[in-house]
Amino acid sequence: MKTLFETKRLKIRDWQKGDAADLFELSNTDIYEFIEAYGWKPIKTKKDAEAIIEAWTKGEKHPLCPSQKLQYAIALKTGKVIGTLGLSERESDAIQVGFIFNSNSKGKGYATEMLIGLIAHNDARGIKTVAYTSEGNHAAARVMEKSGMKYQCEDRLPDMPFVRFVVYSV
Hints:
alpha+beta, 5 helices, about 30% helix
């Protein structure tokens, strides 16, 4: 299992087969209304969650979660997975970030902590961090701002022209 980076309370690492129950729980969170814009569909069974994790560990997309290939588990240091981090290359020197946390993790600063850690990780490698969020997802926009990112523009992605996004970067 590869760890991408760690923060004080979190470990950002590869997904493992044993994480299926946590992914299933995550997929049934109230934030799901926003990630449907990215083409994600509800995960209805733990078997579906296992199949998604298997695809992600092979670097493949899965039909229920088609938007990003590189997915990492956001886990507490105890091992409990509380979110997922998706990374996509958008430009030669930039990585686009997407993240989801389960409902029980809201208001605890985990998203801000993770994003600050990712920005530092990318900065050390000379990589720019860019984040898109669905217009109306004010909580995600606030996390980006608290993490030091600045509003850049509104945009539509070629693969999702029906959704208006708000773009932030460092």
